[in-house]
Amino acid sequence: MLYAILCYDSEDVVESWTPEQDAAVIAKLDVVTGKLAREGRLGPVVRLMPTTTATTLRKGKETIIVDGPFAETKEQLLGFFIVDCASLEHAIATAKDLGQASSTSGSYEIRPLRLLRPEAPRA
Amino acid sequence: MSAVAWIDVAVRGARPQAMGALLRHFRDLDLAEEAFQEACLRALKSWPKNGPPRDTVAWLVFVGRNAALDGVRRRRKERELPGEVALSDLSDAEGPLAEQIDDADYRDDLLRLLFMCCHPELPATQQIALALRIVCGLTVPEIARAFLVTDVAMEQRITRAKNRVAAEQIPFEAPGARERAERLAAVAAVLYLLFNEGYSATGGSAYVRAPLCDEAIRLARILLRLFPAEPEMLGLAALMLLQHSRSRARLDAQGAIVLLEDQDRGLWDRDRIAEGLALLDKALRHAAPGPYQVQAAIAALHARAARFEDTDWAEIEQLYAALERLQPSPVISLNRAVAVAKLRGPAAALAMLDSLAKDLPGYFYFFGVRGALLVDLGRPDDAHEAFDRALALAKSPAEAAHIRMQIDRLMRSKDAAK
Q: Which residues have a Cβ under 8 Å from the Cβ of B217 and sit 6 or more positions away?
């Protein structure tokens, strides 16, 4: 089963990192994701641009376009990993590994997923 | 990151908003700062033990407020301090508190704090120094280094600015729509000033001043999250990101200026460009143009050109013309002349410069541009004269070195022609 491990964290904190701190954070996570990739379990790893770049479309008879993310929360959805895991326990163990390599105090939300259209865009 | 480093980053991230809320509470900058310091000390003690709070800002505001009140009570000898435990155990209090201080409050709190620092009575350098100290939490030596002055001089500058601000009556109730817009505009101007302090640095100072650009962008992002639909804030953030994306390419290893046409575009920061373009796209949807958006649109055209030859000068000229209408200034006209030179040749641009000469008598770039146009027109003696004027007006060693290079090149081609 594929799982999305969604990273929620304080954007103010993440944006206070110096480029060196940011690189160190990524390097630590790379150790874990590198292992997952070698096991053939890793899908796309995504860092979302800051929520300031987000636009929200509210559906309805007349759609409304709103500047900003869907929800104003204390922690923001900053990115996600797609990982193949045998079970929820396995997914939790994987998220724990990522959590230990992570440098912040936020949360990971673990959500099983189904790929409706797996192909990647030709970016 | 070590625990202390992690706490440091978390506190830094929360500082602008926490200071804003504490300022509203105490209505006094010194007291607010003292309260914030105290809250940080307690965070260092409590967080490694109890884990970090879910809402850093609310925790710091709550603890800071109580700690400062303790201080006042202690001074007044009114009653005993509550125990340390009662203050640091916030697990129950935190939830409702976070709801109390909602984003609407933070918005106006932070804006008020920034607006205080950018008081129009203060000279620009004091505005920036005060914002860096109070809002960003940079230390006095850090700020002093960025401004190339001694710690003592910077300390005095900040104290003077603080006293000046303290004497002003800035209303603490929530501002009206018009007032809010005015404050936002004043704050945006100071953020851009702060950015330019970092951006215009060259040589040895470039390294120490680059963090000023990062701070300006960080504050712009925070403001943007609180005011997500302000086209000019979007434009300003986009402008700073797009300009800053070139920072690695615009100076060489010796700190000398590398002109846009000579920059290695592979060194441009693609992440900053992508974010800047995304923000500009959002701004333009509002169809409410303003000077920051137009400048960001110009920067975006440079960012989108894979090579200097691919630059869309026609569009850039149009945008400078739009900027001239929004914000008439001879400096903007000078920039439009540069675009005109690329589009219609140096003679047309030189004619524009002639009409600007009386408005820009002491402007370094005017004579630099004039010299370059005269070189292209095959008038080396006049070019030399213009470059000499520029040299006399150079404000930094890097500017002077750049002009000397132009003169050397001119002399060599003159010799070769003989």
A: B195, B237, B240, B241, B244
Residues B261-304: tens digit of each pLDDT: 999 999 999 999 999 999 999 999 999 999 999 999 999 999 99
Return d(Cα B301, Cα B340) in angstroms, integer: 16
pLDDT at B18: 92
Residues facing residue B257 across a β-bridge: B251
Euclidean distance between CA atoms A80 and A5, whole angstroms: 5
Interchain contact A24–B (C-beta under 8 A): yes
Contact B98 A65 (CB under 8 A): no
Instruction: Tell me: pLDDT of B86 over 70.
Output: no
| B311: helix, strand or coil | coil
Do residues B24 and B37 make contact, with C-beta atoms less than 8 angstroms apart? Answer: no
Q: Kindly list the structural domains of chain A, giving each domain's residue range(s) and its CATH number in brackets, ordered by start.
A: 2-113 (3.30.70.1060)
Name the residue in chain A with its Cα closest to that of B229: A67
Rounded to the nearest angstrom, the minimum Cα separation between A1 and chain B is 31
Enumerate residues 6+ apart whose C-beta is below 8 A from A74.
A10, B54, B55, B98
CA distance, residue A120 to nearest chain B CA (Å): 19
Residue B179 vs residue B374, higher pLDDT? B374
Q: What is the pLDDT of residues B124-151, one digit of tens each?
A: 888 888 988 999 888 898 888 878 789 9
Q: Cβ distance B120 to B114 under 8 Å? A: no
Cα B320 to chain center, whole Å?
Answer: 22
The nearest CA of chain A is from the CA of B105 a distance in Å of 14
Whether the Cβ atoms of residue A96 and residue A11 lie closer than 8 Å to each other: no
Specify whether the CB–CB gap between B309 and B345 falls below 8 A: no
User: CB pairs below 8 Å between A and B: how many?
Assistant: 70
Largest CA distance in chain A: 48
Please tell me the pTM assigned to this model. 0.86
In one letter, which amino acid is B66? Answer: N
Selected residue of B221, B240, B269, B271 to mutate for chain A interface (largest A Cβ count, 10 A): B221
Rounded-to-integer distance, Cα B257 and Cα B249, Å: 9
CA quadruple A90, A96, A98, A103: dihedral, nearest 10: 170
> Tokens 């920067």 label which residue?
B299
Judged on CB neighbours under 10 Å (0-12, 13-18, 19+), B100 is exposed
